[in-house]
Design goal:
Shape: elongated
Structural class: alpha+beta
Radius of gyration: 24 Å
Strand order of the largest sheet: 1-2-4-3
Helix content: 25-40%
Distance between the termini: 36 Å
Length: 143
């Protein structure tokens, strides 16, 4: 069990992993997998479990006449609401249990394939190029 929320562990495909990110989309998974594999981490990706949906309350039936009741029962039998599809998200982990994404980014231990240090903006995919000439504490957000 993790000491705090920033360093989580789980079994992904029966492999004990340090969690990098949960509920990541396909594009984010591709980005993280490429970056972490370049930095010599073994990456494990599994589909995230579907979120537990609360049952929708059904409204009480309104009083109807006998003719309307027969017509309504025929319509109710024909209409079947399809279950909504779960969003396709993934959990990304690495097999190195010492890995912590926060420490890796701010400790400047990750590098991009072009040789730069991974910055917070690059990790969050806010920038396409990692500009490590400006320290993270002086970086002004583009938002």
């Amino acid at each position: 069990m993790a000491i705090n929320k920033n360093h989580e562990f789980e079994d992904l495909d029966n492999i004990k992993c340090s969690i990098v990110e949960k509920n990541a989309g396909a594009e984010r998974v591709a980005f993280l997998k490429e970056l972490l594999t370049y930095n010599k981490y073994q990456v494990v990706v599994v589909p995230s479990p579907a979120p537990k949906a609360a049952p929708t309350p059904t409204p009480p039936p309104a009083p109807v006449t006998e003719g309307e009741a027969a017509k309504a029962s025929d319509e109710n039998e024909k209409v079947v609401a399809p279950e909504p599809l779960a969003p396709s998200t993934y959990t990304v982990g690495v097999t190195d249990l010492r890995f912590n994404p926060t420490n890796a980014v701010f400790g400047r231990s990750l590098h991009t394939p072009d040789g730069h240090v991974v910055t917070l903006a690059y990790w969050n995919q806010e920038d396409t190029v990692s500009d490590d000439s400006v320290p993270y504490f002086e970086y002004e957000s583009k938002k």
